[in-house]
């Protein structure tokens, strides 16, 4: 049977009988694209006809640009329906490892919407934005305090952007010494953005193997260090959810070889208030404000990736930066304009303006409302929750580093427990969707076969974790009971059934009408 959405179901099956004419399923409503229902002549606003003025576009405007015209209720329904097809941290547990999808306190949102922060413009006279600059300066102060690092660059706009910032400072530092080092060492367990950043900066990337315990192999690292190595990029806690206990020895070896230590600090939420990266000998580290310090993210939403620097790299930090003169705050936009060591040999700019102001407000609001003790508890609870998940599942699922001691903020499993069942990591993830959970991170980190990386975050209650654990135990039992057929075609209840993900990414079919599907 072909219903109006063009979705075909096998005749006579229970699924076909449960199919609807509209394609709607109860409260889950189907809808064409607004480009298909929109009409150029329709509008949701009531504006007077524009006055006849001579065009100043020099004849550039020839025809309508094809934006769909919709009435106000159509627009409202469109976005409301779309929002209901989405999964959000405000709906349920979002155990995506290496992403820290935690609750975002509404207080932060309220602060970010204060007109004095939300209605300002980056080109406003500095005298009129003293409060905003003070906020950036206060946040910078707390980031330096929490990391034990003397300098911070606030402008990078995401974690990966922060990596680029840190690596450009490292390159500038080597260039200032007249050295053209070519190689960046990246452990196997690194986040994928690390080698990508190093390559983007023009470095050759070489892998450092992991020990069987999932940590950096210190002797392999030492053996590879030499005058051609510019830096080592290390994620700590790493993407196996483990702390690198030999970090100080790693830093000493790297420094002795004249190279710098870049730390990917995206997982700082596991150690905030407990460990200061500055004490570990790190030279540059980005902080994902949108992970450690809440603030909504995902789906390409705004992030912020300030980078803290050691004294060795501080002179190379980017512009602009905020400076307190004793009486007021100023924005230092040019190298020549300032004395002192910080930014004195700056590599330049990352962005046109100063960074993500809204995220700064949210992060400072989060830091101030938690306080030092609250932030420490964030780390402790994040680690406690992850270990609770790990130990509640490791009798039925396989935890490759279960014997390496407690994990940090995320619990890592491999697909060993699925061997012989015909069920894959992907199948488990799809079945989780039907159970009302966003899947965990799959097939990452690459060092583990069929990885399932679960980060519960500190904001989940024991009851929520217990239900998630019970759900996974149930799915594992079904997989082991020979129900591979069930898994292979999950999800059953999502707005779309299982997609060919490669085809969907390469050749998306966005229209829904039978005609448009037939035309494909
Ligand atoms: C999220 C993450 C990044 C990248 O951060 P973005 O803000 O998404 O660019 C880098 N490294 C690790 C370990 C991460 O978890």
Automatic annotation (TrEMBL):
Query: Which Enzyme Commission number(s) are listed?
Result: 1.4.4.2
Record's Gene Ontology CC terms? cytosol; glycine cleavage complex
**Protein name in UniProt:** glycine dehydrogenase (aminomethyl-transferring)
Gene3D superfamilies in alphabetical order: 6.20.440.10, Aspartate Aminotransferase, domain 1 (3.90.1150.10), Type I PLP-dependent aspartate aminotransferase-like (Major domain) (3.40.640.10)
Q: Which UniProt keywords apply?
A: Oxidoreductase, Pyridoxal phosphate
What the entry lists under InterPro entries is as follows: Aminotrans_V_dom, GDC-P_C, GDC_P, PyrdxlP-dep_Trfase, PyrdxlP-dep_Trfase_major, PyrdxlP-dep_Trfase_small
What role is this protein assigned?
Answer: The glycine cleavage system catalyzes the degradation of glycine. The P protein binds the alpha-amino group of glycine through its pyridoxal phosphate cofactor; CO(2) is released and the remaining methylamine moiety is then transferred to the lipoamide cofactor of the H protein.
Name the PANTHER family on file. GLYCINE DEHYDROGENASE (DECARBOXYLATING), MITOCHONDRIAL, GLYCINE DEHYDROGENASE, DECARBOXYLATING
Cross-referenced Pfam families = Aminotran_5, GcvP2_C
Report the catalytic activity. N(6)-[(R)-lipoyl]-L-lysyl-[glycine-cleavage complex H protein] + glycine + H(+) = N(6)-[(R)-S(8)-aminomethyldihydrolipoyl]-L-lysyl-[glycine-cleavage complex H protein] + CO2
Kindly list the GO molecular function terms attached to this UniProt entry. Answer: glycine binding; glycine dehydrogenase (decarboxylating) activity; pyridoxal phosphate binding
């Amino acid at each position: 049977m072909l219903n109006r959405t063009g979705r075909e179901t096998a005749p006579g099956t229970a699924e076909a009988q449960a199919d609807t004419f509209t394609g709607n399923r109860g409260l889950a409503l189907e809808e064409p694209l607004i480009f298909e229902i929109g009409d150029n002549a329709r509008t949701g606003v009531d504006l007077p006809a524009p006055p006849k003025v001579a065009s100043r576009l020099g004849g550039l405007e020839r025809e309508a640009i094809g934006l769909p015209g919709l009435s106000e209720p159509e627009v409202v329904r469109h976005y409301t329906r779309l929002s209901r097809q989405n999964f959000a941290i405000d709906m349920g547990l979002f155990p995506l490892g290496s992403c820290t999808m935690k609750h975002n306190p509404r207080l932060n949102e309220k602060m970010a919407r204060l007109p004095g922060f939300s209605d300002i413009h980056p080109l406003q006279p500095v005298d009129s934005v003293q409060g905003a600059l003070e906020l950036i300066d206060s946040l910078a102060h707390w980031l330096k305090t929490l990391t034990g690092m003397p300098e911070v660059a606030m402008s990078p706009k995401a974690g990966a952007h922060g990596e680029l910032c840190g690596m450009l400072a490292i390159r500038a530092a080597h260039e200032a010494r007249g050295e053209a080092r070519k190689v960046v060492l990246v452990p196997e367990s690194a986040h994928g953005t690390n080698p990508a950043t190093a390559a983007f900066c023009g470095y050759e990337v070489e892998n450092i193997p992991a020990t069987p315990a999932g940590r950096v192999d210190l002797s392999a690292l030492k053996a590879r260090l030499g005058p051609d190595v510019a830096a080592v990029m290390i994620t700590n806690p790493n993407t196996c959810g483990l702390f690198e206990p030999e970090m100080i020895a790693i830093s000493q070896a790297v420094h002795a070889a004249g190279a710098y230590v870049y730390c990917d600090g995206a997982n700082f939420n596991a150690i905030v208030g407990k460990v200061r990266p500055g004490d570990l000998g790190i030279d540059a580290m980005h902080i994902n404000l949108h992970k450690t310090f809440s603030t909504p993210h995902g789906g390409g939403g705004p992030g912020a990736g300030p980078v803290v620097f050691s004294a060795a790299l501080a002179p190379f930090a980017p512009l602009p930066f905020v400076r307190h003169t004793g009486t007021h705050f100023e924005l230092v936009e040019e190298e020549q304009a300032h004395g002192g060591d910080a930014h004195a040999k700056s590599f330049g700019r990352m962005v046109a303006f100063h960074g993500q102001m809204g995220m700064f407000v949210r992060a400072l609001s989060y830091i101030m409302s938690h306080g030092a003790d609250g932030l420490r508890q964030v780390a402790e609870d994040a680690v406690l929750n992850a270990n609770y998940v790990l130990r509640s599942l490791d009798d039925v699922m396989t935890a490759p580093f279960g014997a390496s001691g407690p994990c940090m903020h995320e619990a890592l499993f491999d697909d060993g427990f699925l061997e012989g069942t015909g069920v894959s990591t992907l199948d488990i993830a799809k079945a989780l969707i039907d159970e009302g959970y966003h899947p965990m991170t799959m097939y990452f980190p690459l060092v583990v076969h069929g990885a399932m990386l679960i980060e519960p975050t500190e904001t989940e209650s024991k009851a929520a974790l217990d239900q998630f654990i019970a759900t996974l135990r149930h799915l594992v039992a079904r997989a082991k009971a020979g129900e591979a057929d069930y898994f292979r075609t999950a999800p059953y209840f999502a707005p779309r059934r299982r997609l060919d993900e490669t085809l969907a990414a390469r050749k998306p079919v966005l229209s829904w009408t039978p005609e448009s599907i037939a035309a494909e």
